[in-house]
Amino acid sequence: MIASVRGTVLHVGLDHVVVEVGGVGLQVHTTPATAAACARGQEVTLSTTLVVREESLTLYGFADTEGRALFEQVQTVSGVGPRLALAMLSVHSPAGVRQAIAGGDIAALTKVPGIGKKGAERLVLELKDKILASGVEPSLGAAGASGGPTGDRLSSQVHEALVGLGWSSKQADDALERVRAGGETPSSVSDFLRAALRELGR
Fold first, then answer.
1. Can you identify the CATH homologous superfamily of domain 4-62?
2. Which of 51, 8, 20, 15 has the alpha carbon at shortest distance from 162?
3. Where does the record place the Helix-hairpin-helix DNA-binding motif class domain (predicted)?
4. What is the value of pTM for the model shown?
5. What confidence tens digit (pLDDT) does each residue in 11-40 have?
């Protein structure tokens, strides 16, 4: 297993980064917030997990080991694969996911695209006791990078990220409009995305 990668960021996408390690560019799938905290030319260290399939090897990266551990843990539940696990960590922080499962908060879990009521209930049923028994104090997630694109480009990137997470184009547009109507528009992709996700969860 590839437990971590450290190297120079060659490319930043909405849900992935390419990190050069030993002359090789590794594409690492991440949450939009983790990707937004990276910048081209910056050296980063990401906790990673390699998902092996018959037809592919896919590397997933996280700002810390807590995110990686939760990503792996939720996949022990039937019906939860890597993409859905990553979507959970895109909508909620690792601490938020743990709290939702431990507290049986079905409403919070169903805010994740792809998780319905039955799926949320299965997550709570299978993981609640394990999370409560772990006694691990959830840490705060890594802060997003300051600065970044602004205006139309910023809106376009956040809109694309929301659609990629499973919301419709209209739902994404409505959420962005509500964020703008609420006052000052966030100046970074990660802050804007979090604000839009809060609106979609109302």
1. Nucleic acid-binding proteins (2.40.50.140)
2. 15
3. 72-91, 107-126
4. 0.69
5. 998 889 999 999 999 999 999 889 888 889
- Name the DSSP class of 27: E
Alpha carbons 52 and 156: distance in angstroms, whole number: 32
Q: Is 164 exposed, middle or buried (0-12, 13-18, 19+ CB in 10 A)?
A: middle
Return the domain boundaries, the chain. 4-62, 65-134, 151-200
Class of domain 151-200: mainly alpha
31: Cβ contacts below 8 Å, ≥ 6 apart:
15, 62, 67, 86, 89, 90
**Size of the chain, expressed as the number of residues it contains:** 202
How far is Cα 184 from Cα 186, in angstroms, rounded to an integer?
6
Gap between the Cα atoms of 110 and 117, Å rounded? 6
What φ, ψ does residue 50 adopt, rounded to 5°?
-100, 120
CA distance 177 to 175: 5
Query: CA-to-CA distance for 125 and 22, rounded, in angstroms?
Result: 43
